[in-house]
Amino acid sequence: MDKSFTFEINKHTEPMFGESFWIPQSLERLYIEVGTEEDCGPAGYIILKDEGGHIRLQKLIGYGSPLICIGRGPCDTSIGGVPGSVGAGRWELIIYIFTEYVKQRPGDGACTLTVRLADMAEGDAPRPDYTGRHCWVSGRGDGELFHDMYDWNKVFRRERRWYKGDFHTHTCLSDGRETVENAMKKAADMDLDFYVPTEHNVIHTGWVETEVMAVPGIEVTTEQGHCNLFGIDRMPEALPRILAHMGGTHTGAYMKEVWEEARKRGWGISINHPFLHIWKWKYEETPLGQIDFLEIVNDPTYTYAGKSNWKAIRFLDWLWQDGYKIYGIGGSDSHNLITEYYEGAREPSVAGDPGTYVFTEELSPENMLRAMKKGHVYVSRHCSLKLNICAGGVSYLPGDEIVCEQHTEVRYCVKITGLGEEPQVYMVMNRVRFRIELVRSGPDVYEGEAQIGLEPDFWHWARLDVRDSRGEFAAYVNPIYSGKKEHRLKTFKEAVHYMEEEEHDQGNII
């Protein structure tokens, strides 16, 4: 068997097109060779459905090996593929245009895409990027992809402690330049305990052997904004409709469907880089009550990251001031090789910068996600924190509620290690901040303590803000809180408008 198709992609191409092809007899392996022009980049997604209508491959074209394989097991099936028999019958090849990228191309944006399907690879063909030992999908779903072979309760570490990870990462399954294998080597070098792959509109179907805990996620990506889903056990049902209408006017309705499914299935929802350049969040009518997390630090090495990250932190403070319990997380959003730097950057973009730390009794996917949803989280760069929060003889973690029936004093202690200089530490309480005095207690170790008072029947929240000597971001610790508050703000648009008006009137941006 040997069949080829050629497609031209430009700014006017329909967002979805494809061809069907016939496999005359069952195969051991099906090879798909994808060819694009050198500067074509991630112009589109390739989807393969087998003779039974099941998805057998989903991948963003442009990065990784141009040779893709579907075989009987995960070790001879490419990333994004579903292992199993390659049966005889009518198969379907679908191409979805990645309009966000195509519209950024100069001129008419035209490029040529070729897809060759064969039962044997050519002798000099490159090695496919195989899934690895661990398969997460069986392929037995009704045409959709389910993580029905992923073990959510597997324990990776037994200690009760803070675990470091990254909630926003990319590999060559979408538009990252690293293979999964290399990404895991970098993760280990950054001392990561867990890693959440969040590819653009595609999901991983398995993973390589590694000591780093990989937890399924996805970055649902449209021209109107990007959001991450955590703890996904399947491909979101509305995702094919989003892909088929990229750049259209209906993606808002489909994004709403994604969020409704996420709420129903208990997935975590995070708005990514909400104020970053052309990738800012534009779904203005998003209900604030549906947001679980806000990415307050996205790839701090990126050219436009500084101002947008500080705005995200301030925005989250305003949401807490209005009574919303939305937790801040970080994401490296790393796409690059370790040798690549963004313009003006002093460091490479790498998974684990920033690190997002989650406190849990022991490290398993289920435990980590549960602790994350409770806000037992802090985000940092180049340093780690030890926290001791006590009130009335009870210890608390970031994200916890402190119930008080009378005036309650909270003792908040912090130890900061590894920054390489004396940090600046502030307590931010109800948007008012005050500096915490530090003492040096060891080589590159600084400690400080604050006392705050909580009153019954009042809404209080308090978090730590850590900066380096230049005032740049070093750490964000999620708030503790007490009481309740009726929300004044209802939508993302209302909250942004309110923040910008208040900051303009007050003239003080913390």
Report on this model:
With 510 residues, this protein is an alpha+beta fold. The chain folds into two domains: 2-131, Jelly Rolls (Sandwich), CATH 2.60.120.380; 161-506, TIM Barrel (Alpha-Beta Barrel), CATH 3.20.20.140. The chain has seven helices and 29 strands. The strands form six sheets. A nine-stranded mixed beta sheet has the order 13-11-10-19-20-29-28-24-25, covered by helices on one side. The protein starts with a strand and ends with a helix. InterPro entries: PHP_domain, Pol/histidinol_Pase-like.
Can you give me a brief rundown of this structure?
This protein has 510 residues and is α+β, with helices and mostly antiparallel strands.
Helix content: 10-25%
What would CATH call the homologous superfamily of the largest domain?
Metal-dependent hydrolases
CATH fold group of the largest domain: TIM Barrel
Major sheet strand order: 13-11-10-19-20-29-28-24-25
Strand content bin: 25-35%
- Which of globular, elongated, flat, extended, rod-shaped describes the shape? elongated
Largest sheet: 9 strands, mixed
- Examine the secondary-structure arrangement and name the CATH architecture of the largest domain: Alpha-Beta Barrel
Protein name: PHP domain protein
Keywords: Hydrolase
EC number: 3.1.3.-
Organism: [Clostridium] hylemonae DSM 15053
List descriptors:
TIM Barrel; Jelly Rolls; five-stranded mixed sheet; 15% helix; alpha+beta
